Amino acid sequence: MSEDFELDTDDLTRRMDGAISALRTEFASLRTGRGSGSMLEPIQVEAYGTMTPINQLGTVNVPEPRLVTINIWDKAMVGKVEKAIRESGLGINPQLNGTIIMLPIPELNEERRRELTKVAGQYAEHARVAIRNLRRDGMDQIKKAKNDGLSEDDQKFWESEVQDLTNKYVKQVDDLLETKQAEIMQV
Description:
alpha+beta
């Protein structure tokens, strides 16, 4: 029966890709010295009775590296969006120009840069833990198949497949972290 055992490596790969994708999203929300539309993604505004992301209330642009602009479509929402940005903890002071909100990105000081690299490291560690948990799930499936009669050679083969997959994704996390930390520390 278990001679036919085949671990669903596609499922493990898909789930590990999800961990990498979540890490990229978290990294995008970390503000470096440059402006990025993605830094506004976590901010929600109370609009028309529901909490709405800013990018659904206006057009977000980055006309220059140290400036983000939001062209709000509904004039009545400008004040609410401005207030949400002020209260978001991004440390940015919005400036109004009609229906356009300008967000000048201030320089990061050395201390803030170091804090952000630590936060990036924490995000990366969460991603590594998620990947290791997926590895454990795969190993548990193999152990169950071993108890059901999977040969020792097949067990070793599948365990090495899962470990190789895990190593590949942990290396991706490390590479992403290294890139993000270099970006944060760049003056």
